[in-house]
């Protein structure tokens, strides 16, 4: 199998963290590509008609894409430990929503010319990030502190990406329980092994 990904992508990182946590990292060739929505990598387009990462080329079927699809496939391949019902999936969806908003902020700031950047759009995406973090802190701490599942992996990758690209968001303020949990989770070997390069 071959995974097309970028080190900076939180969606791709989620897949690679899962590979580490399930002992499958040696089963997958990892192809690190440089890609953007404006200039997608040919390797990405050959694996995913939407030209988005991550994409997993399998030996026994067509390529899989969308991080949730890939993670579910790899979890099932490893024995199905990480998807523990609806709560796990809602937590993953919340984390992916935070990632979506943070990545859109990155595109706005990194790809759009400065004179055309839309402050109200950035504020709206930042509000989604902070709203998601507040919900995690208020409603999901008991789940986050439970047995490892895909929700925890996704949340950790989302928060790490916000810190990586948008530290000024200061999501920790008012979300101290979530910040404490993240500080501990981030020390896991799988998280340390998948840190993106310095911005």
TrEMBL record:
InterPro entries: Glutathione-S-Trfase_C_sf, Glutathione_S-Trfase_N, GST_Omega/HSP26, Thioredoxin-like_sf
CDD domains (alphabetical): GST_C_6, GST_N_3
GST N-terminal domain ranges (all copies): 1-82
Domain of life of the source: Bacteria
Signal sequence extent: none
PROSITE patterns: GST_NTER
One Pfam assignment: GST_N_2
Name of the protein in its database record: Glutathione S-transferase
